[in-house]
C-alpha cells in the first residue's frame, strides 16, 4: 500500500468518508421528513442512551444526541457516521437527535462468549485493530491476541500488534510467534517517542484493544495530549490491572501529527468468536486460500482434517509449515479457553 501524505490522509477520513453518498434503503415519500437541514457527525462515545458526537464541519464541537424515532431499534455505536437535527449547538443541556446512520464500512464485533450467539458491535468504520500487548506485567497471553487478530481479519480490518513495556522484556520471542502470520507490529514503552506508533495511526481510524493493565491508557495519553485517560495500577498479587476505563471513546489524534482517530476500548476480558467462519478467516490469507481450492468439499482446514490440501502443500514445500499452523491456531482460538 502506498502511504498517502499525512495531510491527504486526514482529509480522506474527515471529509471523503463523511461525504460518501448516502444510500437510502426506502424511497422517501412526501409524508416522510427529508432532514435536508441535518448535519453530519461522528459518534465518539455512548453512555446510557446518550450519544456524544462531533460535527463533521466542526470536529471541535461536541454535541450530545439521542436516537430519534425513525431509527427504530437500529443500533448506534461508536464510530458511526450519523446525521443530526435539532439543537446541535452543543450548549450545556442541549440535545440533538440522530435521524440517520450511514452505511458502515466495517463492523468489529464480538460475542460475549463463544456459546453466546448475541453479537455486540464494538465499533463501526474502523480500519485498523491495534492489539496492545505488554511484553511483561502482565505476561503476554497469546489467547486474546489470537482471538483479536482473528476477529480483525474476519471483519476486514487490518491488525497491528503494539508491544508495550519494552523496558521490561525483549520483544523478540513474541514477535517470532506472530511472524508467520505477517501481522504488522510496533514496539513501544512508557516515556519513549511515540512517533513510530503514531506513524501507523495517522489518517485512519484505529481501535485499541488489550487486557487491562497492558499500558493502553499510558499510550493513549502519550498519543493524544490532554486525553487524560485514567492510568491504573497493576495489582501486585494478580499482576492484572484494575478496570480503570469504562466505556469506548473515540479520540482525535492531534492535527499537527497528521490527524486520524483512535478508539480506546475498556479492558476486555473475553472476546467470543461464535460468529467466526473458517472461510471468512481464510480470505485474509490469500496464499492459503489459493491452496485450499484443492481441499475436499466442506474441509474446515483444521489439523484433524485427513485430506486438507494445506497439509499436502506443506509436504510439497509450497508453503511454510509455521504459516499453516499459525493460521490453524487462529482458527482454533474460537474454541480455545479465553485468555
Ligand atoms: N514498566 C512499565 N510500566 C508501564 C509502561 N506503560 C505503562 N506502565 C504501567 O502499567 C500500569 C498500567 O498502565 P495503564 O496505562 O493504566 O494500562 P491500561 O491498559 O490502560 O489499563 P486499564 O486502564 O486498566 O485498561 C501503570 O502502572 C503504568 O504506569 C511501560 O512501558 N513500562
Ligand atoms: Zn482444507
Automatic annotation (TrEMBL):
GTP binds at residues 164-167, 210-218. Residues 124-269 form the EngC GTPase domain. InterPro entries: G_CP_dom (IPR030378), P-loop_NTPase (IPR027417), Ribosome_biogen_GTPase_RsgA (IPR004881), RsgA_GTPase_dom (IPR010914). Keywords: Cytoplasm, GTP-binding, Hydrolase, Metal-binding, Nucleotide-binding, Ribosome biogenesis, RNA-binding, rRNA-binding, Zinc. It is found in: Cytoplasm. Zn(2+) binds at residues 295, 299, 301, 308. It is an enzyme of class 3 (hydrolase). It comes from the Bacteria. Binds 1 zinc ion per subunit. Residues 115-271 form the CP-type G domain. Transmembrane segments: none annotated. Residues 1-20 have a biased composition (Basic and acidic residues). SUPFAM superfamilies: P-loop containing nucleoside triphosphate hydrolases (SSF52540). Its cofactor is Zn(2+). PROSITE patterns: ENGC_GTPASE, G_CP. Its EC number is 3.6.1.-. Belongs to the TRAFAC class YlqF/YawG GTPase family. RsgA subfamily. One of several proteins that assist in the late maturation steps of the functional core of the 30S ribosomal subunit. Helps release RbfA from mature subunits. May play a role in the assembly of ribosomal proteins into the subunit. Circularly permuted GTPase that catalyzes slow GTP hydrolysis, GTPase activity is stimulated by the 30S ribosomal subunit. This is Small ribosomal subunit biogenesis GTPase RsgA. It comes from Nocardioides marmoribigeumensis.
